[in-house]
5-methyltetrahydropteroyltriglutamate--homocysteine methyltransferase (Streptomyces tabacisoli), 769 residues
Amino acid sequence: MTTRTAAAAARATVYGYPRQGRDRELKKAIEGYWKGRVTADVLRATAAGLRRENWRALAAAGITEVPTGDFSLYDHVLDTTVMVGAIPERHRAAVDADALDGLFAMARGTQDVAPLEMTKWFDTNYHYLVPELGPDTVFSADSARQVAELTEALALGLSPRPVLVGPVTYLLLAKPAPGVDTGFDPLTLLDRLLPVYAEVLADLRAAGAEWVQLDEPALVQDRTPADLGAAERAYRTLGALTDRPQLLVASYFDRLGDALPVLARTPVDGLTLDFTGGAAANLEALAAVGGLPGKRLVAGVVDGRNIWINDLERSLATLGTLLGLADRVDVAASCSLLHVPLDTSAERDIEPQILRWLAFARQKTAEIVTLAKGLARGTHTITAELSANKADLASRATSPLTRDPAVGARCEAVTDADGRRSQPYPARAAAQRAHLGLPLLPTTTIGSFPQTTELRTARADLRAGRIDTAGYEERIRTEIRDVVSFQEKAGIDVLVHGEPERNDMVQYFAEQLTGYLATRHGWVQSYGTRYVRPPVLAGDVSRPGPMTVRWTSYAQSLSDRPVKGMLTGPVTMLAWSFVRDDQPLGDTARQVALALRDEVDDLEANGTSVIQVDEPALRETLPLRAADRAAYLDWATEAFRLATAGVRPGTQIHTHMCYAEFGDIVQAIDDLDADVISLEAARSHMQVARELAAHGYPREAGPGVYDIHSPRVPSADEMAGLLRTGLEAIPAERLWVNPDCGLKTRGRPETRSSLENLVAAARTVRGEL
Ligand code: GLN
Ligand code: ZN
């Protein structure tokens, strides 16, 4: 095909769309079903209605091929588990009794049966349910859901493309089932799984699918030759089938790297490639393999994971280059639009001019359609869109919200010394020992205490104007008094104020820093029916005034024991927000770090001697490709040090991490130069303590002894046992005693008993030293 005919054939498509509906109708229907207030039929009808609405919106916007099967009542990886019949033994009965209840049993567990484990979908904030496989797993095809959704879309007169998690990614995301040797490699099941995919493909073909999309994002990660061999075998096998739709293998979230030539030489009919951010390296790689002759290329040129408008001219240039490299070039977002909110037009609180810089799923769809039109019919057909886009980009680039010269100048002026404490750790440790006078095995918590209904009601009352700020603040002070007096009575050594004033550990700070925007309806699925509204980091960041000092100082005024100040670290402030795309992430992190540094210094000046800067997201933001990690860890650890290095040697800096295993980033943890780190460790029996020891980690550490993910109250004996295990790795002079994480999701009575037991455990073990 010539470049010109390839251009003329260009179409617009998307890989997936937000599931929840304008008012999160899906969440309400599912949670209503769980509570018995909504019937299964009503839930199914709600879901079908939302699918229909999405397809109609896509078709009306000019999307020619709509995705089907991307919709889910909980999670698309869980749906794939159902599709391939890999139901764990313990859920079999529930699934056999009722498919819908069985699905939710796998997702959430029941009274008697544990759910599937949940983990992050690559480096997004979406979480999927991990397939559990073993040598005895028998797969069987269940294409009912895929066929039904395809049929629904066909009935609307649309041209649907079913979207499936590909077989290689499915196996690479799986883990050995409980009871199976942990060394078991699920990928060894590929030959058993492929016939199931063949059957599903045949069913979809029979039901009228012309194309099917097989998502293989696992191939953008570093892969072994064996993994790549499996990918090649999979797509040679599926490609060789005669009774099948055309196959589009989808990659996203990064560059394909070594997997690109592998997929290019298989007999599949098309590939999707990401051309945004670092994935733009796909362009050169594609040219290097001689393009995709005879194949369809779907080009992800619109960022599917962030909320900024596209630079249409730049995308058109990329698309123009791609025209010579494939038989047909279509236009798409870089990944499913699941990861962005639905529609900016629902936002009423953001200034109209600023709103024009933002593109959610609906706006991104329009951009994709515009680009496809420009490609197919010439840029003269989209001149109005191009000039509006140019004006919006210019308004963003030159807005005082985007650029604050004072912030720029301050960042420029940062020196190495700013990121270094005035004394090395051993000298600081001695100063802190003298200053704080803590016992061996000091006890503390991670920050939050249970967020009671009264607190949530108080916040709602304040928003609704039922109470005024003074009334609200009095409720917060009451809670702080209560939390402080409990900790004193329980005998905890380093107290916290309990974070009652915080709705969320990122949002609370985002609301007080300049440079951040909040959305009212910008919901994004985190997992199941949980949706979050990430703030938008839109411009240069600064701190107009103290953010936490009054609450921490108030708590300190109530006690002679040290009260720990509590802040969210720069990396976490970025990781759980939509970040700006017009400067390197490291620059943004540095701005946030400097704003936090002001807060740290103010806390110290107001008498706070222990300050914790939480970085639970440090590990989860690690780039997918190992080659990109050193650069990331470099700016990430620098930002932490910049935030914390301004204090005196006797002021103790803590950090906290959770939600991950940390064995592979111990060096980075060391590079933070924090005096104390608390880490999640109870469920892994202090594994992280051994990892720190193996690395020779020289500082103080509190591997968690209390698993806060369940209401269970651990006994003092049990926690003492964990402490003794911890002592095998970390000497008593450097071991802290604390829970795994904050207590905000826990109930009050269980928390109090658990903390009393925790103090008892510390006392028992101190007596043995
Ligand atoms: N300080 C926070 C809290 O206790 C930390 C939360 C977290 O690590 N996710 O809630
Ligand atoms: Zn935590």
